[in-house]
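Show me a record, fold above all:
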Amino acid sequence: MADQDMSYPTSPLLSAYECAICYDHLARPAAAIIQRKELCQDCFDAGIRPQFEVHLLDETAVPRWHRIEITIEDVEHQFDDAFVIGYQVKKYEYRILPKYRVYCAARVQGGPCGMFIDDKHYGGSQAVCPCGAKTCKICDSIIALPPQEHVCKTTANATLDAFSGQVRGVDYQLCPNCDMVVNLRDGCNHMTCQFPACNATEFCYICGEAATPEDGHWTKDRFCPRYGLPARLEESNRYNVTELSALKHIPTVSQAFRVVARVNTNLVREGAVPAGDLTARAAHPEAIAVWTYLEDTLTLATRALEKLPRAISQHPAVLEKRAAIAPAIRAVFQAGIAQDDIHALRRFPAIVEAEAALKETIEQLPKTQMLEDIIADLRRQSLSLSLVHTRVALDD
């Protein structure tokens, strides 16, 4: 297997090649030819060989050249016989879905053997390891007694045990084909399984059902959002903030109006402007200052109202209730309700309960205080920006 591939041109005019990675011109033969591209030995050792070594430990890290898999047969002359055989054995293991693999359950020299020994689809109910131990292909436990006396144990799923107390569809999800666990911190809920044996199964992170962009799973009015956690399914998703749309009801704005009224009254009382002379009052420096203050406050309040829905949707209490919708959606689909039957989906008890809890949580949030906090934050940002502009002006 380690013999050099001699299928290279022998013409003197073609005795040199350009490495596809470093672009050096070298004498043939090249170290390897991958997808009709010739590579030198240094570049192969630095960029290709490590991919095969990593793939022995991580089945999702498939060796690739321009997104196309490199097979061991393409480059087997670069490896010794032991590596090639070991790699081919691993590739056979990787072609089997993880849930159908049988690993030796014996303990050898104080530690687990763990060798891959069989496929659950074939060869009876037990698998024999080279270490001599027998493993049950049904319950994955060691067969210590004669096979006819073995009783399968009901064992907990160790993988799922690690996610005890977490919410499926939020903290983790299982591929619907191979049952492997995936995590998503943030981003698109369209998932593609990375295990080679799974053949790139596409599914939804929220509900765990098989789904592709083409089948409309994440279209408008569907339960599962394309991005982020589920939200309420009502047409209006403004989180019941319309009662705050009158800016004067916001404390900061009310206070600004009171300041304007007090300054105007004082200007007349102190004789600074004649009573009823709106033109004189509008031109007075103090009146100009307070009206500018009021306009700035109204601008900040308007921006705060625009930011409030997002602040509500990201509030920890709301996130917790939104997360609870994910398993409810999965329960809907497991009950056999069609994904496009929106009316039936919305009447499903788990969904009704989850959405009611979310609505109640949103209604109980201290929205007025949240608005005040947003306004204060916007004011700080505005002040910081003004200071930056001042420094720039001074520097100029």
